[in-house]
Write a structure and sequence with these properties.
Layout (H helix, E strand, L loop, with lengths): L7 E5 L7 H13 L4 E4 L4 H4 L9 H12 L3 E5 L7 H6 L26 H18 L5 E5 L11 H15 L2 H8 L32 H29 L4 E3 L1 E2 L8 H5 L6 E3 L8 H15 L3 E5 L18 H11 L2 E6 L26 H16 L7 E2 L3 E4 L2 H9 L9 H14 L4 E4 L10 E4 L9 H10 L3 E5 L21 H4 L1 E8 L6 E5 L4 E13 L3 E6 L8 E8 L2 E6 L1 E3 L1 H15 L12 E7 L2 E7 L6 E2 L8 E2 L11 E2 L4 E5 L1
Helix pairs in contact: 5-8, 8-13, 10-14
This protein binds alpha-D-galactopyranose and zinc ion.
Length: 666
Amino acid sequence: MKRFNRILYGGDYNPNQWPREVWEEDMKMFRHAHINSATVNVFSWAKLQPSEEKYDFSELDDIIDMLSRENYEIVLATSTGALPAWMAKKYPEVERTDYEGRHHKFGHRHNACPNSPVFQKYSVRLAAKLAQRYGGNPHIKCWHINNEYGGECYCENCEKAFRVWLQKKYGTLEALNEAWNTEFWGHTIYDWDEIVLPNVLGDGMENGRTAFAGISLDYRRFNSDGILANYTAERDAIREFDQETLITTNLMGTYKGLDYFKWAKEMDIVSWDNYPGYNTPWSETAMCHDLMRGLKDAPFMLMEQTPSQQNWQNYNALKRPGQMRAQSYQTIAHGADTIQFFQLRRSVGACEKFHGAVIAHVGNENTRVFREVTQLGAELETLGDAVLGSRNEAQVGIVFDWDNYWALEYTSGPTIDLTYVKHIHEYYKYFYDRNIAVNMIPYDADFSQYKLVVAPVLYMVKEGMAQSLESFVENGGTLVTTYMSGIVGQSDNVHLGGYPGPLRKMAGVWVEEIDALAPELSNEVVMITGDTCRCNLVCDLMHLEGAESLGSYGEDFYQGMPAVTKNSYGKGHVYYIGTHLEEQGLSGILDQASEDAGVERVVPDGDGLEIVCRRSQKGRIYFVLNFKDQEKHMPASLCGKQDLLSGENVTEKTVLKKYDVYILQE
Ligand code: GLA
Ligand code: ZN
């Protein structure tokens, strides 16, 4: 498969929304900004297929000709992310039925029923026609299928498809009834046709939770698979005509609805859209990048970011001077081979007219944003292919699992405040703050590649996982896991015999009860070092079964019971953190675990800076970024290395102001 030979720099471009004179101006201005790439045709289905019988590619031909003449790297979308109005009118089945059971009318986007035969037929046909027409164009460097797939549908077509999916999964109704624990409330199913989709009219609850996690989890898996089948159907249609070009679709970081690890197996390259809010911690953005890289353990594309402002958040702050540049380099540092914006020219109407763009409504080059885009474009040109294809390596793996995400957030009790991504991020942040590289890994990863595996809130332990974690630890690995782990299997039925179920033996503890602490309550953990820290949210009441206690509760009727433990198992260690610790307490425990595991920082110094390493054939490339308000000195360990952007060697005197970036070649 052909990969990129320069960093794609550009983004979503919708010349179809503008008169032709503007196209010429665009080309001139983009040349000035060193833009070399455009993502086109994202929402043009209605234009390409104005009626059921008619297709018209003339405008797209002109756009692609123009971009080809300008030697652009074209990302060609298939346009199936928004339905044409005629289709919704003639075939209402293409619209979705929502969680409340309401069948939708024409409007909005990203909302086709994945199991509508009409949608399937026409989306695949359009993809095929595009591939047939443009697949041979060497300027097309990537196919972009649909756009930001997501959401869910509860229509009759989906219901029928769900039953088929279930038959394939379970074979018999006995197996299904057992998995869903239908004896509870007498929900026994005697015929496949009795199964209904679990929206709020069925087993779903008003608050998005569920009476039966078994069916709801299967529905989520089915929905993710069904939408993925839309993707693979378009992909396969493209492959008939074009065997060479990469195919992707743009993902959304920790988006809950789709099992991206499963999706990534069907994608040639992962791409994603990064829209942090004004107050999103940089560590969280870094985590999302690492997750997107982790999906294929490979470099990815940044398909979208705004050059400055969003429109759809509550408070759409401007990016401060230098912020977009720093954010872009953070993206590259964590594994991106492209920097693409949404969008290249700010639209004139509809809900995104306040969304930032390379060209603002004033329509000229004389804006702060345009100048910043131009500067970055020039720098990326200087960087050339130095980082392309280079790899991020890590000694720490953090498990991220969509099944677990769904199950944890479906479950009723012990607390509604236990959300998945927040807790994963707390653990990630420890490593981020210390410049310890992390890979975000699936539940069935090869753990043996890591010194330290961290599996926070591993509520669901699926078949095979406990065994592979056990052999990882037996062979000398260090595992950290926490409260609300090892509780259920893949259908949300409890692993009987005491928590944390299949992790109990290696953790050397038995959790007898789990207390939930309301937001205004907390407890204390007294560490064996004498340090104390507050804890909250949940408190496991546990007994040692071989593990040693590293800290015990300071208050309440379980005062003195272990709260944090460490167990030696084979040649390795298991840390079990039984309560939600305050940051400094958690850090103390993770310091110990990291030391046990022999985990190294990217460089030994440089506290307060973000330092990330990608390894190319020519050696290591260090990205040094300052996201703090205070100035920082270049860490001594990196002095003497050459900055790829300025060509100069950095010294102890080199100072990084907020948003400054250095890219140092070993
Ligand atoms: C998403 C979409 C784009 C655009 C941006 C705006 O990422 O893919 O079409 O709507 O949001 O931020
Ligand atoms: Zn449907």
